Amino acid sequence: MTGAQILLECLAHEGVDCMFGYPGGVTLPLYDAIRDHQIRHVLVRHEQNAVFAAEGYARATGRVGVCCATSGPGATNLVTGLVDALMDSIPLVAITGQVSQALIGTDAFQEADTFSITRPATKHNYIVTSLKDLPRTIHEAFYLAASGRPGPVLVDIPKDIFLARGAYEPLTTIDLPGYSVRMEGDGVQISRAAEAIRAAKRPVIYAGGGIILGNATPELRDYVALSGAPAVCTLMGLGAIPTEHPQFISMPGMHGSYAANMAITDCDLLIALGVRFDDRVTGKLERFAPHARIIHVDIDPGEIGKNRVADIPLQGHAKTVIAQLNAELRAGGPVTPNAPWQRQVDDWKAEHPYDRAHAEHEIRPQHLMDEIDRLSAGEAIVCSDVGQHQMWAAQLLRFNEPRLWINSGGLGSMGFGLPSAIGAQYARPDKLVFAICGDGGFQMSIPELATIASLALPIKMIVMNNGYLGMVRQWQTLFYNNRLSSVELDCFPDVEKLAGAYGIKGRVVRDPAELAAALEDAIKEPGPFLLDVRVSPDANVYPMVPSGGAINEMVLGELTGARK
Amino acid sequence: MLQTISVLIENKAGALLRVTAVLASRGYNIESLTVARTCDPELSRMTITVNAEEKLRVRIIAQMNKLINVVEAVDLTESPSSVRELVLLRLESATLCGRILEIASPVQARLAGPARNGFVIEATGSPADLDSWIRSFPGDTAVEITRSGGVAVPLEPRILPTPRPVATGAGRALAEPVLTA
Prior knowledge:
The complex is a heterodimer of chains A (564) and B (181).
Chain A: H1 3-13, E1 18-21, H2 28-34, E2 40-43, H3 47-61, E3 65-69, H4 73-76, H5 79-88, E4 92-98, H6 114-118, E5 124-127, H7 134-146, E6 152-158, H8 159-163, E7 173-174, H9 187-199, E8 203-207, H10 209-213, H11 217-227, E9 231-233, H12 258-266, E10 269-273, H13 279-282, E11 293-298, E12 312-315, H14 318-331, H15 339-351, H16 365-376, E13 381-384, H17 388-396, E14 405-406, H18 417-427, E15 433-438, H19 439-445, H20 448-455, E16 460-465, H21 470-479, H22 495-501, E17 505-509, H23 512-524, E18 529-534
Parallel strand pairs in A: 1-2, 1-3, 3-4, 4-6, 5-6, 8-9, 8-10, 10-11, 11-12, 13-14, 13-15, 15-16, 16-18, 17-18
Chain B: E1 3-10, H1 15-24, E2 30-37, E3 43-50, H2 54-66, E4 70-75, E5 81-91, H3 94-102, E6 108-115, E7 118-125, H4 127-135, E8 143-147, E9 151-154, E10 166-167, H5 170-175
């Protein structure tokens, strides 16, 4: 067998059914071998979109996403997506071709030092220097990508390795002396955590992406029910608790809910589950949950105490640790929730809910989200790009289950929405998939209309078009005296013609009265649909915690905000 | 006062770079670095001397421990350890050579051999003792100095994490949820 065939056998052994990629010179032997293999290759139109599509696949299923690129520019085009996956802890394996080993270091055609370039962009990376190392390397890559704190792993394979011939002997075990994964939480800390939970007067559950990644939703929901405490989910954790759950008070942080930010500020115990105290959540760190003791559950010991010292650190897998905690709580009899605290939180919730008003003369972004939400009913997969529309979607859409809300959280990569929807729809053909983009991010992704058309993926592409790079415009308005600079997107293609050029349907909607029907028509269409929704150009996302401020000092809207 | 971090790493291409990059990417300079194989040829021991305040050092060591090739990174600054360093000096004067060897100091110094127009002295001791020894040289001493950087060994036995081998494909079972339609 050739190295290329051995690689495909290893991928099949790891359960890979498809990979997203773009071929090139040094990967010719691989692309030749893939013709005869059951693994399907999805041809995207740019390598960056291969890695975003693999992320969409991974985020929607939990399985390791696989992407592939050639040497040099192919590999460097992966970098943004690798960092994106690293920031959001998404399990990925990236295969890159490299020039033959005899040419490495000679500035050969399409040579780049991929191993060095991607080292800080991955959880771990490899360059394969002999055929006998190939199976072990691939199996290690998959184990590292999926286990512990998941992340992207890159394997750089020189062309001579793809071409080399050898026997494939399946490997049964891998040995990584420097890598251990701790699943169970320390028993003493579990008892301390349970005591703290019982003693707390004003607890808040702060659940994040670790719950989704660790498939710990059932355990978390059990815990929410057992404790009776109000719960927030971070941007990465949406769906872990159903949006309409009475204890759920939405997202905390910069554009989080009033109730979430007030509850965190006032709480005496913060139960942090699979979160990393990100700056967009905490605002001014010294004033984040200033009265609270912290229980911090995380699989990555490097996260515990990184930004906020944990009073009760609990290293372990979210699913295992929360199950342990639930058992400990059950053994001690029911936890009595503090009724006045629950009432206080409900009051905050009622006092300043998210703005979801509609207007008659224009489509407000909130109106668009409301209509998408009506059609999704918390069940559709929503892949979002980055910006204002992402925040409104996070605030206003319901998610009944995990793995429905797919977005670029940590890195905030524009151009993520559409290609991630390709991966998600490919993985979940049974699901209604929306790609919600701004007019900025959508224009970064237009080449992928070809992929969508070619595969006839029935993605509902919704462009929330306000003619601006809205989030940057919002900051220029609020903090740069409305001196707008390079944020006006004054040219946007006619989407009927644009979509039509790819043989798919498209439509513009400007009239609020037509919005509901336009969306319904888009969904009725059996194939892909591109809907350009013209929304109010100058709407800002509120609440907003100004950068560096404490999270209880929110600007709640135009009337009370800085613009008044 | 400088601090000492001891790192046990897999003896693999690129492993050293991953460890030093944890410091470099945060803008921290490495004061000294030594690395060599241990009794186990698969593993190497690094001793890194840095100047980083404690809070930051804790974070740096946590980041090092996250690296796949790192078996263990520990802070030896506060824990009992023995730190030694080797210094090689080249001098061109026999008189000077004699004077330097006569300086009373905890440093172990001896003539290592001849050099062109002079001699080489080797000296070992704790980095601090070597510092003060070198400072006590006569003012007009023209020498060329090469220092190895500190090598450290903890004084207490340590139990190393020993992860067991895992089955290939094990990651799959960990990652995959049961999907609901």
